[in-house]
Amino acid sequence: xxxxCGFPVSNYYNKVKLALLEKxxxxxxxxxxxxxxxxxxxxASPLGKxxxxxxxxxxxxxxxAILEYIEAAHPQxxxxxxxxxxxxxxxxxxxxxxxxxxxxxxxxxxxxxFGGAVLHDNELARIRKQLETHIAAFKxxxxxxxxxxxxxxxxxxxxxxxxxxxxxxxxKASLGEDLLLTGGVDYKPYVKMIGERAxxxxxxxxxxxxxxxx
Length: 214
Fold this sequence. Notes:
Elements: E1 2-6, H1 11-22, E2 27-31, H2 39-44, E3 52-55, E4 58-61, H3 63-73, H4 84-105, H5 109-114, H6 121-141, H7 155-175, H8 179-182, H9 188-194, H10 198-213
Parallel strand pairs: 1-2
Antiparallel strand pairs: 1-3, 3-4
Helix pairs in contact: 1-3, 1-7, 1-10, 4-6, 4-7, 7-9
């Protein structure tokens, strides 16, 4: 049995959950927060990060490593193209979303979502410049035709659906404008389209329920 550990408010948890649901795999969920860094958690996730996945072979951490495991162990329905170059382009897009967009905008989350102090103007200017540069680069490789990597739902969509809205909302809250839209990435119709999938509806419903319960 696969056990997904973490909590439904985390976008990286939901990235993995979306992939599991798309593959119609049977799995359980175990509520774990990064605050609970006991020995059992650190055995599964040495940095105390979520999500992590318990498998019959042992535990795995890091969302992309988990997705790669799921794809290799359960290749159908496929979330990666069979063509080597097309698969590499999906990984490229996922890297851009996770590391060049989401991790950058994460610096704004404390203020944007949790009532934290506004960052110093110099810090805000630095983050804005970095986001603008990275969004322009992302725009060059994202397809949105209709999926982020082309005509098929892939692992890149698991990242895009859960993280692009955060980039937009956090930049608008802290920098005064949705930098994705300003940068010419009209992601909202795409998010609406993905949101019509049963897997995405389950992820969103569980996330909202968890937010209400907090």
